[in-house]
Design a protein that fits this description.
Helices cover 49% and strands 23% of the residues. The protein is α+β, with helices and mostly antiparallel strands. Strands 1, 2, 3, 4 and 5 form a five-stranded antiparallel beta sheet that branches. α2 packs across α3 and α3 packs across α4. The chain is globular. The chain starts with a helix and ends in an 11-residue tail after the last strand. 11% of the residues are buried.
C-alpha cells in the first residue's frame, strides 16, 4: 500500500508539473514596458508623433504592442512590447522596427532625426521587463 501511494504521488506530481509548464508556456508572455514622461506642454506633440509615425511601423511589422496614453498619474505614455528573454529583444526585433521606420521616413538619417525629436520631448523615461499572469482578458475567445 505504501508503494501504491508513492506511485500515485509521483504520477500526480508529474502531471501537476507538466500541466503547470504547459500552461505557463501557452499563457505567459514577457513584455518590455517603456514609460515616458514628457516635458511640460509637450505630451500632445509626443503622443501625436507616436500615433502618426511609430504605431504605423508596429502595424507594418506585426508587433502586437499594448500602448496606453495616460490622463492621470506620473507617466504620460506607457507601452508594453512583446519581449523574447532568450534573444533579449522585442518581438519583432528592434532592428526590424528601425528598418521599417527608415523605409517609412525616407531613410535611416530621417528616421534617426525623427526619433531624436521624440526623445527631445521627454522629461524622463524608463524601461522594465514584466511577465503577464496569463492570457489577456478577452483573448480566450469567451
Amino acid at each position: 500500500m505504501n508503494l501504491e501511494r508513492v506511485v500515485v504521488l509521483a504520477v500526480s506530481l508529474f502531471l501537476v508539473f507538466t500541466h503547470t509548464q504547459l500552461f505557463a508556456a501557452d499563457e505567459e508572455q514577457v513584455y518590455l514596458a517603456a514609460y515616458a514622461k514628457y516635458k511640460p506642454g509637450k505630451a500632445v506633440e509626443a503622443i501625436k508623433m507616436i500615433h502618426e509615425h511609430f504605431f504605423p511601423v508596429d502595424r507594418k511589422i506585426g508587433r502586437k504592442s499594448i500602448p496606453f496614453d495616460y490622463t492621470t498619474g506620473e507617466w504620460d505614455h506607457i507601452v508594453y512590447f512583446p519581449y523574447d528573454l532568450a534573444r533579449m529583444d522585442t518581438v519583432p526585433s528592434r532592428s526590424e522596427w528601425w528598418r521599417a521606420l527608415a523605409e517609412q521616413e525616407g531613410g535611416m538619417e530621417q528616421a534617426q532625426k525623427l526619433y531624436q525629436s521624440y526623445l527631445d520631448l521627454q522629461l524622463m523615461s524608463k524601461v522594465e521587463i514584466a511577465r503577464s499572469v496569463g492570457p489577456l482578458m478577452g483573448a480566450t475567445g469567451r
